[in-house]
Sequence to fold (457 residues):
Amino acid sequence: MTATPVAPAAPGTTAPQLHPAWSALKAAATELQDLQVKDGSIPEPGNHARASALTEVLTGSVRELLPLFPHDATYLELVITDFQAWETAGFGVPDFLDSLLAFQPQQSRIDGLQHLVLFPMYTQNGSSSRLVEAVLIEVLWPEFIAELEAGDYSNGLFVPIRFLDFTSGYNTNSAVLFPETVAVRETPTFTWGAIFADREAARFRRVVRAAAEITRLDLPEEALELLDDQELTEEAFVMWDLIHDRTHMRGDLPFDPFMIKQRMPFFLYSLEELRCDLTAFRESVKIARDDDASPEARRHARLVQYAVIFDRIFRFSITGTRVRNYDGLGGQLLFAWMHQHRVLHWTDTKLTIDWDEAADVVVALGEEIEQLYWRSIDRPKTAHWLAAYQLVSGTVTPHPASLWAKGPDALELAGPPRGLTDAVLDDEFPLSMFFEALERKMKPVIESTAGITGAAG
Fold:
């Protein structure tokens, strides 16, 4: 089932987050979460009467808000139906497949277009339980992004968004809205993925400002513009995400790179995420040097390069635990690569970057990963894993206790691949002394970005 095309509400003409029905909906969803368990059900019969009352508030609030979202009328009517069906079935494991299939935000990527999103779902880097969450969002679709997407960077599934308001699952580090997080009876074909560019931009600005002060890094004038302008930074992140997102299924891939998240050593997922970021970096270098590109595209392409480098080395490297932290490792790898290729320097307790040479050095790391991927289809899985480990460990020093660092002779290569995965240490590539010191100083800043939105900027 797909949504019936309806003329969208005029972008930016309403403030649904100020509507009394939104306040009632948000409060009801928050209370309902306390009655749910991990799979989204409400197993305690004694809670069903209260759950019914809260469901009535939710559905009534959606009806009140529906005139603000005529473009989502079919979807919101089905949300009401799915909540009523959940109640009728005794609040078992929720099934919101019908309403999910009707929600198709990628079909109307209009700058400023707003949506009310209401599902039982988990929030990545937030809650791992499929609780009822509500979020008001607004689409970001600048003209230069529309031009890029209509040209060489087509990505029909990509929806960049910003927060208007949200329930507790998004008062976290979660910066994505993905349909695969919703509770459904069967897995559909996913047709969109949304990324909160305002959260990415706001935490980038806070973290990089602090890191530059701590490391005494003199920022170029254009990089300083990112720290001073939330909207400009949001647009840079939209461009970065547009190219990153489409890269996951493009290129000379080791069959399906997403299979590595659970079934292969975490450093392979590090390389996949870094490959996509460095593709965005490389393409931005190309656009910035292209006289035929629009001035806006060239300007933002230069900003994307700063965003990739600073977000990777200052935030990714020291965010999260040291347990299989693939994004952390990717940040460490980029920092060490730049340092060892002598475009990044830590001298006299001051960080400097040679910007005239940095772009080519970063592009070269992307080419190393691309070469690894290109060779992958001619190699057995184990050989590919070993080659990937060699690439990473050639730049980032492994843990002294690592079996992998001792080479093939120390590993059990005759058994199933799971044994090799289990042999990877949780912190296979510990932080360097530089990052250990930086983490101690930056930890409060990074922790302060949980739940941040563009309004903080």
Residues 216-456 form one domain.
